[in-house]
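Here's a chain:
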Amino acid sequence: KLCQVGADGGNSKVRSLAGLQTFKRQYEQEGLVCTLETEKSHSTAWQRFLPTGPLAILPIGNNFSNIVWSTTPQQAHQLKNMSDEDFVASVNEALVSKYGSFPSSMLSQLLGGTLGNFLGIVPSCSEPFEVPPHIIKCLSKRASFPLSLNHAYKYVLHRLALVGDAAHSVHPLAGQGVNLGFGDAASLVSVLKSGVELGADIGEVCLSTFIVFFV
């Protein structure tokens, strides 16, 4: 018997055809995205929290990165209409030059040692702080989209399950949307695996309750 998983994004066609309703709220922000070239290759994701919203830079291999700049609709419009040169300068300024200084490696070492123990401060990580890479070129057109919360009232129906953004779209802050999606997929696989082992009908809505009760 056919079962279907809706994993087709925030504007899920599967969810819509199934008649599943959602709660939606606008964040009154836009997410500006594009692809950039950095001065050197890196494999670290950075996020800087700015007064208008976070700016994230995400490595995609070699000297290339994608960015997601969450900001006001007005600033998103300005950033999209800048020259490539001015936009690159704005990204570098926001990442490195503006809104205060970065933690110093010396301070991190001190707080990670005897001074930190005396003050009762535990550092969040043992690695020294790294400054974001320098951006040298904008490689794609800039686009932006409204940011909103979109949450399905139900994730499952008979022979249907929603996962990821099809079930719940959230603000891109700290990559929580993709983390939730990975968690959805892992949980669904776990429930289906248990259902198969017990000989249950994996398309039944009550499958998870059945497994919890009998395992």
Q: What stands out?
A: The longest strand covers residues 22-38. The CA atoms of residues 16 and 118 lie 57 Å apart.
